[in-house]
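Record pair follows.
FIRST:
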Amino acid sequence: MSSTGEKHSPLEQFEIVPYIHIDSKGIDISFTNSSLAMTITVAVITLFLTFSVNTRSIVPSRLQLLSELSYNFIVQLLKDTVGAEGRKYFPFVFTIFMFVLIGNMVGMVPYSFTFTSHIIVTFALAAIVFIGVTVLGFVKHGLRFFSFFVIPGLPWYMLPLLIPIEVISYLSRPISLSVRLFANMLAGHTLLKVFAGFVVSLGLAGFLPLAFIVALTGLEILIAFLQAYVFAILTCLYINDALHLH
């Protein structure tokens, strides 16, 4: 960074920094701070679930209780949105939920990196969901899946107008799904950084922005969970659409 203003920019925390430079036939696949954050997220999830399962007991420990709550939460979510048929998709939805949730929480640790604040990451996750449920729809229904874009009971003369709208709405799913998560995490962390700058610059008078930081941190933790929940429930709803159409 060339200037002091840029160095302390609230957006500096989102900069991708390569740790290990790897170039494969002109393609940059370097190991970055984003890669490290994702690796830590996967490691935390793996250790959490492994140790919580290994310590099963009649009186559950805190770790086991959290694990069981997470499991039951997604099971109930699938049951409410998809029905009994949705149980087979539990591993996929649970993986998505835990990856987004723990990724958001890892980003709350000071000096860490929030990979869910990058649109390329959230769009990749959304694209996996979109492609997966679309393939599921075609596998289950074949060409009848296209009837999803026709609203039941709609007069025939309205079809030329509303079918393109339904198709555009369907194709925009990965965009809305990814932007929602990305924008919330980006805005929250930027706001925290701005108020942190006020604390430093105001000196002793910085107690007021410091109080805001404490409140915003609690709010951001809540948003981190809510965004993982929204991502998971929308995934469940998309699976329900693919299985049952209208």
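SECOND:
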Amino acid sequence: MFMGQFQHCLDQKGRLIIPSKFRELLGQSFVLTKGLDACLFVYPKDEWVVLEQKLKTLPFTQKDARAFIRFFFAGAVEAEMDKQGRILIPPQLREHAHIDKDAVIIGVSNRVEIWSQEQWDSYSAEAAVSYEDIAEKLDLGL
């Protein structure tokens, strides 16, 4: 399970260090794609297969389903870590997530998310205001 929050900077070549806690869980090869809320999603191969199977069950006759599947898969790339634990984030994915230099890498159960520092700060400040209300609506039994 992925959890925690880490800050790192992109180097000049667009590479980002993946926290050591996440490296073994991700494996040498994994999938990087456009996420929701202007971030990137990183899936280990086994989780990607599960997600792919779920998406295959969506009715392709529905416009929204087709649009989501196209967006999600068109943005996906197979990524690998180098010996220093860095991944290369392609320019189109950096642009999607507004990542120029400072990035936040967070663990979210079955995936890793990569955010620009600015986007994460804005999102987390907004979400923190309604965190308790959201928990109450979801009736999580915490």
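COMMENT: The chain has a mean pLDDT of 94.
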